[in-house]
Amino acid sequence: MIIVFAHFNSPLPKHLILNLKRTIHLFPQHEIHLVTNLNSALIKVNKLKVFNYNPSPRWFDLEKTLSHNREFR
After folding, report:
1. At the N or C end, where does the chain have fewer CB atoms within 10 A?
2. Rounded to two decimals, what is the model's pTM?
3. How far apart, in Å, are the Cα atoms of 68 and each of 60, 63, 64, 71, 72?
4. What does the alpha-carbon distance between residue 66 and residue 63 come to, in Å, rounded to a whole number?
5. Phi, psi angle pair for 7, to nearest 5°
6. 9 secondary structure, DSSP code
């Protein structure tokens, strides 16, 4: 099983780092992944696989056409 966390646009909060470490500790048989647009070299958590998210130019075109509030998660 792969457990995936996602975090964008701000430095990793302390509670997220602690949560990542605890999840790795509790589920050593699973892969723990983090998807983020932050510099992965700054994220120092053992056994964590970090994937950098870089939206394609097409995403920005799509974002312009969205009709809902962009701040809505």
Report:
1. C
2. 0.76
3. 15, 10, 11, 9, 8
4. 5
5. -150, 130
6. S
Report in angstroms the alpha-carbon separations of 11 from 8, 50, 64. 8, 14, 26
Q: What is the DSSP string of 14-72?
A: HHHHHHHHHHHHH-TTSEEEEEESS-GGG---TTEEEEE----HHHHHHHHH--S-TT-
Instruction: Please report the pLDDT score of residue 70 as a whole number.
Output: 67
Helical (H) or strand (E) element with 2: strand 2-7
Give the residue carrying structure tokens 């646009």.
Answer: 9
Which is nearest to 17 in space by CA: 34, 29, 41?
Answer: 34
